Amino acid sequence: MRWSADQDEELWGFPFRREKRSGGLPGISQSNGRSIDMHEPQSRLRPIPNWEDQGCFACGAANPSGLQMKFFSDGERVFAFPEVPTRMAGWDRVVHGGIISTILDEIMGWAAIHLFKQLGVTGTMTIAFKKPLFVGERLTAVGSALAPPSGRSVQMQGQLYNAKEQLCAEATGVFKLIPPKTAVRMGIVSEAYLKIFAPILEFDYHG
What Rg, from alpha-carbon coordinates, does the chain have? Predict the structure, then answer.
């Protein structure tokens, strides 16, 4: 069953705004998976809304033990600029591989949610660790789609750069796109949670 904008409005109580793009496939990075230009002006980025009481380990502002990632969009991709605290190190000052995996998973998940306006959950994920990353440095994470969705699945890419703008880790993953009402029926989220999450799904870079 295809999820329609009318069904979105039925659930949320207001119409969703859909992203309008010129050229290329909607929501698909035109970089075709290549490394990003790190010198792109950050003035193009717009913050994606989150809510203050979010308790997620990766993105929850209310989780003092987490990464508290914040997300931005350039209309095609999602960016984050986390600084990993010392308590999340593995060897000495090196960021633990599990934390790197979390950042890449989160940036791909938020990119799937933002670009395709549905909930996204990780199906599979493959990571290549290229260079060490260090705690206390400002990192750059980038999430994008590698291809249009196929059914309820979409192939995503995540890239993680160090403060010297070197690509240090990257991942690809298959994410499952789940319509809001289906997520409630499956017990993934509650109706109350979805109402709080609505501004994130509704956010339109071009709006």
Answer: 17
